[in-house]
Write a structure and sequence with these properties.
The protein is of the alpha/beta class. It contains 15 helices and 13 strands. Helix 3 runs parallel beside helix 4 and helix 7 crosses helix 8.
Length: 441
């Protein structure tokens, strides 16, 4: 009898909790996002629980919400992901280290070099979350007056990916001879000069660092628009997605796996990982009480700020006690806007109700006992709606500790989550192949 499929689990750690009220929860660390001791303690707990990856998103602007919301937000200050993950690589051995790298506001040579360095520092545990960045305030921090158009951002991202992976393949794996007798350090026949000139980018190469241990760091992608799904089907090895229910998860899973198969890619070479807020209690009622307490800590100013971000327009002037008005398309995240409008229509929510939902967390949530949470996760796995989850903790450290101490053992008991790591690299643990060098056999 074949062994059951196993879940892959990542931990979403920037912000340390996605929930706006997390830093105010009794017993929580209010400074979690900017405290290295807390980060170190958390990643080591996740590694003991055999998590696949520690996932660091990134925000490239502060003023992405009104000041009334900003002053209550725990996301304002945080470590730069590469700096933090480089430090954490030295106090861990197996857990993957995934960082966001923007294809709109960074240069491919910088991205290639940083991720190659992180992969070498960690012994092969780096992953690159490709994002195009949808926050218009970020453009103002990088010499632009406005955000690049949505589809153009994705066209640039596709070319950016080609350049970065080409730079990672600048050297054959055995290019560095280091022969002290002959005095030959490297074989120039095993060096490739990329000499890329495209629509958006011009990069000569080669990269001034050896090929990453994994060949390429694992490629992660999170877009859900048509352009985002096209990019994911062509490039992604793990997809961080927001699917609010089992049916939506099954549809997204079938769509994306089908797209990659049409491109000649094997289904098992992409792991689809929906984001999931998990709140654990000894009883379902206790878990629901925790959720209610958490939601009660969200101020309306934060809630309406979250709604504005989701819609891509300032919602502060909307009548809070009327339905959501017509929302024109914007140049920000299209999938986030569509999900929010659909939620408001489906549940007939007022602006105030919708804002409060988003101000806490409006996505997939599993709230219950270790057994009921494991039941839901197993259902998603068995129904081809997910290959695993990106876990969002309701508050730190308690929410993380509850999941590691109670849910993980239940998943292990059922045989759907590992008891030991399969290998030392992130690719090995995710069951992904090491890519061949494009320029050297």
């Amino acid at each position: 009898m074949p062994a059951p499929r196993q879940l892959k689990l990542g931990a979403f750690m920037r912000p340390a909790s996605i929930h706006t009220g997390a830093w105010r929860y009794p017993g929580a660390w209010p400074d979690m996002n900017f405290n290295i001791a807390h980060m170190r303690r958390s990643i080591q707990a996740l590694e003991r629980a055999k998590f696949d990856a520690f996932f660091m998103a990134d925000h490239m602007a502060v003023l992405n919400m009104p000041v009334e919301a900003l002053k209550r937000s725990h996301t304002v200050t945080s470590f730069e992901p590469f700096t933090l993950l480089s430090a954490l690589s030295q106090v861990t051995e197996n857990i993957g280290l995934v960082a966001t790298g923007s294809t709109t506001f960074d240069a491919p040579y910088h991205i290639a070099r940083r991720f190659a360095s992180l992969d070498h520092l960690s012994g092969g545990r780096a992953g690159w979350n490709i994002v195009t960045t949808s926050n218009p305030d970020a453009a103002l921090n990088f010499g632009m007056d406005a955000l690049m158009e949505h589809d153009e951002r994705y066209e640039r991202a596709r070319e950016f990916y080609d350049v970065v992976t080409g730079l990672w393949d600048s050297w054959a794996d055995d290019a560095f001879i280091r022969d002290t007798e002959s005095g030959i350090f490297l074989d120039p026949e095993k060096m490739h000069v990329l000499a890329h000139k495209g629509e958006f980018l011009s990069v000569r190469g080669p990269l001034n660092i050896a090929r990453p241990i994994q060949g390429w760091p694992v490629i992660v992608q999170a877009g859900a628009s048509e352009a985002g799904k096209r990019l994911a089907s062509e490039t992604a090895e793990a997809v961080f997605t927001a699917q609010g229910n089992l049916g939506a998860g099954q549809a997204f899973y079938a769509d994306l796996k089908g797209r990659m198969e049409k491109l000649g890619r094997a289904r098992e070479h992409m792991k689809i990982l929906p984001a999931c807020l998990v709140i654990v209690g000894d009883t379902v009622e206790e878990a629901k009480e925790k959720r209610a307490k958490l939601d009660s800590l969200v101020h309306y100013a934060n809630a309406i700020g979250s709604l504005s971000i989701a819609l891509g327009t300032d919602a502060s002037h909307f009548d809070p006690d009327r339905p959501l008005p017509e929302i024109p398309e914007s140049n920000q995240s299209k999938s986030g806007r569509e999900r929010t409008i659909a939620l408001a229509k489906r549940e007939n929510l007022t602006v105030r109700q919708l804002a409060q939902r988003l101000g806490g967390y409006a996505g997939l949530a599993m709230v219950g006992t270790p057994q009921t949470i494991a039941d839901e996760m197993q259902q998603w796995l068995d129904a081809d709606a997910a290959d695993g989850f990106i876990i969002m903790f309701p508050y730190l450290p308690g929410g993380l500790d509850d999941f590691c101490a109670h849910v993980v053992p239940e998943l292990q008991r059922r045989g759907i989550f590992r008891r030991e790591y399969e290998g030392r690299t992130l690719r090995e643990n995710l069951g992904l192949p090491r890519p061949a060098n494009q320029f050297f056999s």
